[in-house]
Design a protein that fits this description.
By secondary structure, this protein is of the alpha+beta class. The protein is built from eight helices and 17 strands. About 25% of the residues lie in helices and about 30% in strands. Strands 1-2-6-3-7-15 form a six-stranded mixed β-sheet. A four-stranded antiparallel β-sheet has the order 4-5-17-16.
């Protein structure tokens, strides 16, 4: 964040740093602003990444592909957004553009996160683009999140006579199999072929010579926008096995109409550069859009071309970053020509907190 702040300061662009995110409120978010008046466009990026191998933190370019942890999700997009803001500062911006950068999109913890801190400090607008990887498609929907901890209950016995007990680990295996066969797991929508169910963690047993009497496993369920998490939970709890289901975390889906004028403008810009149809798509993963949606700000995921995010071969096409930069600038220019949006009052002054 210090580097990004200094980069903008050196180019005469107004910035502010806000502390308050993280379990102890020690994490810093950043805002860079150009222009004034309406429409108010928010660009959103996160500077954090998921863990990776040591070599992934040294970027390597091969045959036009840039490899490294976070280049696709989403530091490549973030760098292009920074340059787009610089461009708009140089050529002039008839609306307001704010680049919101958070330190914690990839993590969940108790307490406010960076997006919530920025929203609480008045950084909302008419439309938001987050640079999550979409290969130049416009992500108008994202699945909801329901994380569960399932605990199965067996009966202990000596390891040499397992038939005298009930193995909770095997019960967990059977329980997970039945979860996959529940009605919710095979439903579909116009943008999604199915929800996703990931068995992320499992723990059972304590010593090797005893039949485990408890086992817990954690499910990461990404459900469709028209599904109800309470109904999913009801179905899971209806499985006739000795098991408990505890909700660890939940987050609602995100949705914006494909007829939204901002979405139409973004698709118009993408069609100028995209070799194909930049169709509206559904996104399997979640993003910070949900917090802005709660504040009444519609948003989409829209990012450059690449692959392998969160994996060992994460990469982005180098040329797509420059194209992405141009797309963002042209998107703002189209909106400026089309007139002002609902936020007519000037933005409040940026302020330094913490």
């Amino acid at each position: 964040m210090d580097f990004i702040s200094g980069w903008f300061d050196a180019r005469g662009i107004e910035t502010a740093l806000y502390k308050g995110a993280g379990p102890a409120g020690e994490l810093t978010s950043l805002v860079a602003r150009v222009g004034s008046g309406g429409p108010r466009i928010l660009l959103h990026g996160h500077a954090d990444v998921v863990p990776g191998c040591d070599e992934q933190f040294e970027a390597v370019e091969e045959h036009g592909e840039l490899y490294g942890r976070g280049v696709y999700d989403m530091k490549g997009a973030l760098a292009a957004m920074m340059y787009a803001v610089k461009d708009l500062h140089s050529i002039g911006c008839n609306g307001t553009v704010e680049l919101l950068i958070v330190p914690d999109e990839e993590r969940e913890y108790g307490g406010a996160n960076g997006a919530e801190v920025l929203i609480d400090n008045g950084h909302t607008g008419d439309f938001l683009i987050t640079g999550e990887p979409t290969d130049f498609h416009v992500g108008v929907q994202a699945k909801g999140v329901l994380d569960l901890k399932i605990t199965t209950h067996g009966e202990s016995a000596h390891g040499s006579q397992p038939w005298l007990g009930k193995n909770a680990v095997l019960l967990a295996h059977e329980h997970y199999r039945r979860v996959q066969e529940l009605p919710f797991a095979s439903e579909r929508s116009d943008l999604f072929p199915h929800p996703s169910v990931n068995l992320a963690k499992i723990h059972g047993g304590d010593v090797i010579n005893r039949v485990p009497d408890t086992c817990s496993y954690e499910l990461d369920i990404r459900y469709l926008p028209d599904q109800e998490p309470r109904e999913i939970l009801r179905q899971i709890r209806s499985i006739e096995l000795p098991a408990d289901a505890e909700v660890l975390f939940s987050r609602e889906p995100t949705y914006v109409s494909r007829r939204n004028p901002f979405v139409k403008a973004l698709r118009e810009v993408a069609a100028r550069h995209f070799h194909g149809n930049p169709v509206s798509v559904g996104r399997h993963g979640a993003s910070d859009i949900v917090y802005f949606q709660r504040a009444g700000v519609p948003g989409v995921e829209f990012g450059p071309v690449g692959g392998g995010h969160h994996g060992p071969r994460e990469h982005v096409l180098s040329g797509s970053l420059e194209t992405y930069r141009q797309m963002l600038v042209q998107f703002v220019q189209i909106l400026s020509r089309n007139g002002r949006a609902k936020h007519e009052a000037p933005q409040p002054p940026l302020k330094q907190l913490g």
